[in-house]
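[INFO] parsing input record for Tripeptidyl peptidase A
[DEBUG] input buffer:
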Amino acid sequence: MLARVPYLLAVLGIAFAAPHSAPKIKERIHAPRDWINVGDAPSNHVVPLRIALPQSNFQELERHLYEISDPDNVRYGEHLSKEEVEELVAPHPDSVHAVNEWLAGHDISEGDCVRSPAKDWITVHVPVAKAEAMLDTKFHVWKHAKDEDSVVRTTSYSLPEHMHAHIELIQPTTLFSRLTGYRATSHFSGAQEHPAATSGTITVNGHEVDASCTTTITVSCLKQLYNAVDYVPAATQKNSIALTGYLDQFANFADLQQFYADQVPAAVNSTFNVTFINGGVNNQTLSAAGGEADLDVQFALGIAFPTPGTFYTTGGSPPFIPDTDEPFNDNEPYDAWLDYVLAQKTLPQTISTSYGENEQTVPESYAKRVCAGFAQLGARGVSLLVGSGDAGVGDGDPDPATQTCLTNDGRNATEFLPGFPASCPFVTAVGGTTNIPEVAVDFSGGGFSNYFARPSYQESAVTEFLTKQLPNGTYEGLYNPAGRAIPDVSAQADYFRIFLSGQVVSIGGTSAASPAFAGFVSLLNDARLSHGLPPLGFLNPLLYTRGLSGFHDITSGNAPGCGTPGFNATVGWDPVTGLGTPDFGKLKNIVL
Ligand SMILES: *[C@@H]1O[C@H](CO)[C@@H](O)[C@H](O)[C@H]1NC(C)=O
Ligand SMILES: *[C@@H]1O[C@H](CO)[C@@H](O)[C@H](O)[C@H]1NC(C)=O
Ligand SMILES: *[C@@H]1O[C@H](CO)[C@@H](O)[C@H](O)[C@H]1NC(C)=O
Ligand SMILES: *[C@@H]1O[C@H](CO)[C@@H](O)[C@H](O)[C@H]1NC(C)=O
Ligand SMILES: *[C@@H]1O[C@H](CO)[C@@H](O)[C@H](O)[C@H]1NC(C)=O
Ligand SMILES: *[C@@H]1O[C@H](CO)[C@@H](O)[C@H](O)[C@H]1NC(C)=O
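[DEBUG] output buffer:
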């Protein structure tokens, strides 16, 4: 009892000192489509509340990021250290103090809090009943109409008015995330016994390419097409590449060996490291291998070999089991992964992620905060590649009668649906092409963000597209012409020959394009590191300026969706294939 006295006094002291204010709605969303409220959440169910404190100096971080990523700036390549980034995203002491008082007022002590290294996130595990009191809300169990997924969420929460300036957001509250792999299942063409029988070579963009590449994409095809045949990585002591895995997608070691024997014989017996995050696993039972994970690892590592590789397997979001008070980990996977990587002293120079969802299914405040995490990675010298999505401008459906691109803002209006995290301006979004010569693949995700404004590095490329290609109000009202435009670049995205559970299969998606593009970025990083230069870091300011001449422009094809034919690939940047596909040889000369 005695031990509690000082604590009680402290709480009372705070209660007198703290300004009182009535709860005011911090965030309110429309119940997202396809989620059904099936009843009250059990009051003893434990919620891992993650509290984001405002990053008071984020604009300064952004300024540094753009300076060190601009090849024409004297500071190009002067990436920041972990500590320098943390200093820039640290919350203001007033916010730390105010949040501490608010937590103490709810009997939550320092010992109950887990803080991120920059102190900009606090995690506390509280039962539903307490979370409801803190947030002046009611949590419910929501079930997804299309599967058995259940989550404990609310559609609005409140904070005392004086706390609004000190807390940016709290999740999981309004986040009904449906992160999925961008492996277009419709492009999963099943078993493929033999590589295409086509023999001989064809000449594309001045390079010899095996004719078989017109029907089957292998590591050699990509190296031929993208002009990297003769490059030998030399900075393997410093350079590394990584792939993210979520949702029980396991990368299989045996499948990788078969893939190497088939396509990269010199790599046989080499492997990758696995980093387990937030309870993630990597089940090696052959039948448990994941198409997404195997695709990502096989192509990224196959291209970058012998560059060391890492597979991050992140747990989280397991199914909610009602009527249990077992705490479980229901952190959303983006934060769990970011938490982990941002806490590391050294990071892989190139990372690819092939997962995402419609931007509108992620609350804006959360999307912005996750995007700010990607900016931190860029500032530390990481090039982050993200698949642009596999559904064209929204749902991939050209038929106005069956399209499903409805806004979630209560209006149910038809609008194009850009993908997140591709819509974050601090990642490099990778769209898809197919065939040789290349054209846009019809599922390549593209469009314009409704959350993020167009970054200045895209201004000239995107304005040219809008004024020349979309005159006279084409698609007016369906997209946000002032938004961050997607994708930035593209790569082949269909008929990739991989090994999955011991079988050869043909697979596609911007999930294939992103790790493939990342493989070439990793080789560019190798070239820089071999010459004693820093890695490329955040790529976009380079790509839209000096990098322009290092791309094959893709000028035909389109990607339908939302009851329309979608946008067209055209001369210059377009919202289907971005700047085009890479010419490694030219890009290497540009970055050295
Ligand atoms: C791989 O390892 C096996 C068994 O140790 C060995 O026989 C084989 O030569 C190795 N292959 C390569 C390419 O290193
Ligand atoms: C691995 O996957 C297999 C096949 O799905 C499953 O039977 C097995 O229980 C899993 N192992 C673990 C440790 O989860
Ligand atoms: C795996 O990690 C170990 C220890 O950090 C490192 O020595 C090794 O080079 C890594 N291997 C690969 C393939 O990344
Ligand atoms: C929008 O759709 C939802 C779910 O399908 C429905 O409940 C709601 O009534 C619709 N709202 C309008 C304004 O049509
Ligand atoms: C746009 O409208 C102008 C004036 O009506 C017309 O001359 C022009 O051809 C139109 N452009 C396109 C691409 O439809
Ligand atoms: C795309 O190109 C086709 C064929 O040239 C043209 O008819 C159509 O209007 C274009 N669509 C857009 C949105 O630019």
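[INFO] The pocket of 2-acetamido-2-deoxy-beta-D-glucopyranose (ligand 5) is lined by residues 471-472 (CB under 6 Å).
[INFO] shutting down worker
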